[in-house]
């Protein structure tokens, strides 16, 4: 039944770099700004190909957000690049006022989201960014699951007019979505059909959800797996259609329990079709140092946790 | 182009607009607005090369960003009296459902405004970004921006000042409203700015001063001189010495009127000191 094959581990941030490189060639209005993390964000190739459209701003993220807002005036499409922590919490007021409130066409591209910056510890990780960004009126929030999807999303957001938060990670993860996929903002992807439980996952947890579905299948439990790459606007229709069939849901994300995807799904269910829900997320904690794999295990962000949550939620039906 | 008498009439009328807007809703910021009246009149009527009408991108024209958004009364008055929107709309300042929010915003689509401002320290970054886009577009027009002196206490400005010089944003003119006052008192009392001229020069900017920023002719000639300094590899900073509350005697030389509205009696005194010229709205 293995439907999705890992075509070779790749990092999502390299998907961003590949998408940006392609965009640079096809869209002359795309400009890129980086706060001293060109290599980490994989922006080197864009910089090499289009030095006149690449702006090194130094370790000055607040200025970077303001510059990006200003560059939209006259028609440019700025992509900013730094770690997720410094792309959101550090510059929240700049994003709120100069970008979101001002309706500026800025693409805030954030790498090393969640726990997977690993050994650097909590100062360089962030588990609150989805919540921060989704609360901003008019902000689109995207969290991609693998290299191919990140590349497709990077290209797609250039054609969407308005502020976008694009969240991706550092480590190499399974690359399992189609290379030629069409990325539709706000449109969930049904990865696997099932009848007993709906697993709604985002980012690095999508692959874990697929692994969990296989393990559940071995236990005789049929799981439906949905990839929510766009957290805002949320594809409520897809979630409700699935839950009307399965009558319960597990949400899975590399983010705090407060303010993340799970909370958005819970709101949707409460309003339309209340159903039992279990949350695979970090439980109101900061991260810590460790390898990404160790951290994902310690904080319960893996297939095993999704399996346990699924059993629990089915029992609550 | 208006003659000097007409411009001076506009200055007086804008002062009346400021007082009346703030008085009507018993809120807003008259002090800094009055201190920058000559600057706004000079900029919009004489200095900037503007297209007729308004579009967000402002290509092939000079554009302006207000960073210290709390002086919205003077900005709104001069925009309206320069044809961006009906002067009567000044009646809606700070009222519910108005396009004239307490601090300027693009949100309600008010012509003349290209970015929201009010949370201090952000305008210079936006202005530099817009200046860089003008260069990418091959548009040789200029970007002007105004910030308050107290606003320079915000660290983001110094990120932007460093960046502007490093990236040779020489199509940009930053004017600092150098009145030495902020909400809690003088800038010297709250957090001294030190030698601003030396600081900007040390950061690689071309610096000029306008000694009397409330003398219309001095402001016009100062800004025209600043224009001649552009295109030489350095961004240009104009330190414009102004008097907060200028034109209304009891509001001058004090921070007391930074964010306080006059009562009926005070309004009458202020208006009497600035008799109607072009007509009230």
TrEMBL record, chain A:
Alphabetical keyword list: Thiamine pyrophosphate
Extent of the signal sequence: none
Cofactor: thiamine diphosphate
Cited Pfam families: Transket_pyr (PF02779), Transketolase_C (PF02780)
Record flagged with keyword Ribonucleoprotein: no
CDD domains associated with the record: TPP_PYR_DXS_TK_like
Domain Transketolase-like pyrimidine-binding: 10-175
Gene3D superfamilies named among the record's database cross-references: 3.40.50.920, 3.40.50.970
SMART domains named in the record: Transket_pyr (SM00861)
Domain of life from the UniProt record: Bacteria
Family affiliation: Belongs to the transketolase family.
Name recorded for this polypeptide: Transketolase
From TrEMBL, chain B:
Necessary cofactors: thiamine diphosphate
CDD domains according to UniProt: TPP_TK
NAD recorded as keyword: no
Lineage: Bacteria, Pseudomonadati, Bacteroidota, Flavobacteriia, Flavobacteriales
Regions annotated as coiled coil: none
Domain Transketolase N-terminal: 11-267
Family indicated by similarity: Belongs to the transketolase family.
Name this protein carries in UniProt: Transketolase
Keywords associated with the record: Thiamine pyrophosphate
Organism: Aureitalea marina
Pfam families reported for this sequence: Transketolase_N (PF00456)
InterPro entries per UniProt: THDP-binding, Transketolase_N
